[in-house]
Design brief:
The protein is of the alpha+beta class. It has a domain at 32-72 and 85-101. Helices cover 38% and strands 25% of the residues. It contains 4 helices and 4 strands; from the N terminus they run αβαβαββα. A 4-stranded mixed beta sheet has the order 2-1-3-4. The chain is globular, with a radius of gyration of 13 Å. It starts with 6 loop residues before the first helix and ends with a helix.
């Protein structure tokens, strides 16, 4: 059985990772779910998308500089390449991810 990579291992990988910092009580965050599913299909094999609940992982959110939700960040090889708060369209996210492949 394959071991799931840790958060740190994902961020340090050579494949871009889009991290969605969200909260279950946040309407715009919940509205992003179908958008993220669509983007995940389009970038499959080129990038990963992971979601972090800032209520469950408050320290992680604070350590990463999350001031509001939704907040998106892209990491590759341990470096933060992009960071922005607010909702995005599927096309916007896909373009940003593919720029960092």
């Amino acid at each position: 059985m394959d071991k799931k990579p840790t958060f740190k291992e994902l961020l340090n990988g050579d494949q871009p990772v889009l991290v969605d910092f969200y909260a279950t009580w946040c309407g715009p965050c919940m509205a992003m779910n179908p958008v993220l599913k669509e983007v995940a299909k389009k970038v499959s094999g080129k990038a990963k998308i992971i979601k972090i609940d800032v209520d469950k992982y408050a320290k992680m959110g604070a350590d990463m500089g999350v001031m509001g939700v939704p907040t998106f960040m892209i990491f590759k090889n341990g470096k933060k390449l992009w960071h922005e708060a607010g909702t995005k369209t599927a096309a916007q996210l896909e373009e940003i991810i593919l720029k960092n492949v």
